[in-house]
Amino acid sequence: MRRVVVTGLGTINPLGNNIAEYFAALENGVSGAAPITHFDASKFKTQFACEVKDYDANKYFDRKEVKKYDRFAQFAMVASEQAIADSGLDLEKIDLDQAGVIWASGIGGIETFYQEVDNFAKGDGTPRFSPFFIPKMISDIAAGHISMKYGFRGPNYCTVSACASSNHALIDSLNLIRWGKADIIIAGGSEAAINPAGIGGFNAMQALSTRNDSPSTASRPFDAGRDGFVMGEGAGAFVLEEYEHAKARGAKIYAELAGGGMSADAYHLTAPHPEGLGAANSMLNAIKDAGVNSFDIDYINTHGTSTPLGDLAELNAIVKAFGDHAYAMSISATKSMTGHLLGAAAAVEGLAAIMAINKGIIPPTINNEVIDPAIDTRFDLTLNKAKRREVNYALSNTFGFGGHNSTVIFKKV
């Protein structure tokens, strides 16, 4: 099978509006959480989130485009434009029939849906809906917009598997390039669900932290006092390219996307399998697909959402998959800084894995005051401060409601 490498990166997320800002914030252990500004959250159980900062859509799009794009699609366009520029691709010199877009979103245009239904409910019953309502709302539209902007006529679709979505986009892209179905694919994910419906819905599930008195410390994976995740928003984008194609044009290569694994818990609507069976299978499948040994993995960017059940289940899964090597690897949970970007989480965390490989820096798990007594102290959880370490292989996990598990492995080139 053909090899697949990463030749371009882009992001807009709660820690930065480009890769340089994001990597600097990761290294310095910055929290992206703060009181919600998108709407009046004073009556909600959770009144904070990890919002994208200093974002003005009019700086990126003209007024007509802003009306066409839900916020999640705007983020997709911003991040993908950065990644394509970073890759140095000359669109006049590539085969556009062999260039595709596989873009993920767990929820899609929930902001548009909320606004349109709210407007109707407040009206006199006369159906007045925007002609852009459906095209703005559907989850696949971000992939469509990216392909239309750049003329990419290859594979084009959206992966939707809750919080595992953008790892599934990376895995599908990996396989399509391996099989010769494309030479270049723009892959990633975006999400923008910080609105009354998004916050209210997750509050009703008791999934979100309610640490309103200290938002910046609310996301605290592996801490004894964790009480739920913090919602984030944004996007992460990768230019994935067949290795020989990238070499032929002299592209810089950040890493190789070496393998991917998938599985299902087949257990519960929202809770992970307590023993981490599905998560362990996902990691083992990725290791097998990458053609490496478990002891080759140097770093794991965990799903690590800061939920009481999820953090423990994932560490159980790591022990099942790696045995004693579980204690030799570096592990961290960057959601402690970015919050949980839902369907975009894997993309933004995959970028953190790329940083670990390229800079030799393990991003920290911040906000840990007292480690959960149920957690084995032999784990290297990179608590509160980044550390230096050579990373040849980095693994990134994401797991979603419905029992969806996905894992990718990046390799130093």
UniProtKB/TrEMBL annotation:
<dbReference type="InterPro" id="IPR016039">
    <property type="entry name" value="Thiolase-like"/>
</dbReference>
<keyword id="KW-0444">Lipid biosynthesis</keyword>
<keyword id="KW-0276">Fatty acid metabolism</keyword>
<dbReference type="InterPro" id="IPR020841">
    <property type="entry name" value="PKS_Beta-ketoAc_synthase_dom"/>
</dbReference>
<dbReference type="GO" id="GO:0004315">
    <property type="term" value="F:3-oxoacyl-[acyl-carrier-protein] synthase activity"/>
</dbReference>
<keyword id="KW-0012">Acyltransferase</keyword>
<dbReference type="InterPro" id="IPR018201">
    <property type="entry name" value="Ketoacyl_synth_AS"/>
</dbReference>
<keyword id="KW-0443">Lipid metabolism</keyword>
<dbReference type="InterPro" id="IPR000794">
    <property type="entry name" value="Beta-ketoacyl_synthase"/>
</dbReference>
<comment type="pathway">
    <text>Lipid metabolism; fatty acid biosynthesis.</text>
</comment>
<dbReference type="GO" id="GO:0005829">
    <property type="term" value="C:cytosol"/>
</dbReference>
<dbReference type="InterPro" id="IPR014030">
    <property type="entry name" value="Ketoacyl_synth_N"/>
</dbReference>
<keyword id="KW-0275">Fatty acid biosynthesis</keyword>
<comment type="similarity">
    <text>Belongs to the thiolase-like superfamily. Beta-ketoacyl-ACP synthases family.</text>
</comment>
<comment type="function">
    <text>Involved in the type II fatty acid elongation cycle. Catalyzes the elongation of a wide range of acyl-ACP by the addition of two carbons from malonyl-ACP to an acyl acceptor. Can efficiently catalyze the conversion of palmitoleoyl-ACP (cis-hexadec-9-enoyl-ACP) to cis-vaccenoyl-ACP (cis-octadec-11-enoyl-ACP), an essential step in the thermal regulation of fatty acid composition.</text>
</comment>
<dbReference type="Pfam" id="PF02801">
    <property type="entry name" value="Ketoacyl-synt_C"/>
</dbReference>
<feature type="domain" description="Ketosynthase family 3 (KS3)">
    <location>
        <begin position="1"/>
        <end position="412"/>
    </location>
</feature>
<dbReference type="GO" id="GO:0006633">
    <property type="term" value="P:fatty acid biosynthetic process"/>
</dbReference>
<feature type="active site" description="For beta-ketoacyl synthase activity">
    <location>
        <position position="163"/>
    </location>
</feature>
<protein>
    <recommendedName>
        <fullName>3-oxoacyl-[acyl-carrier-protein] synthase 2</fullName>
        <ecNumber>2.3.1.179</ecNumber>
    </recommendedName>
</protein>
<keyword id="KW-0808">Transferase</keyword>
<dbReference type="InterPro" id="IPR014031">
    <property type="entry name" value="Ketoacyl_synth_C"/>
</dbReference>
<dbReference type="Pfam" id="PF00109">
    <property type="entry name" value="ketoacyl-synt"/>
</dbReference>
<dbReference type="InterPro" id="IPR017568">
    <property type="entry name" value="3-oxoacyl-ACP_synth-2"/>
</dbReference>
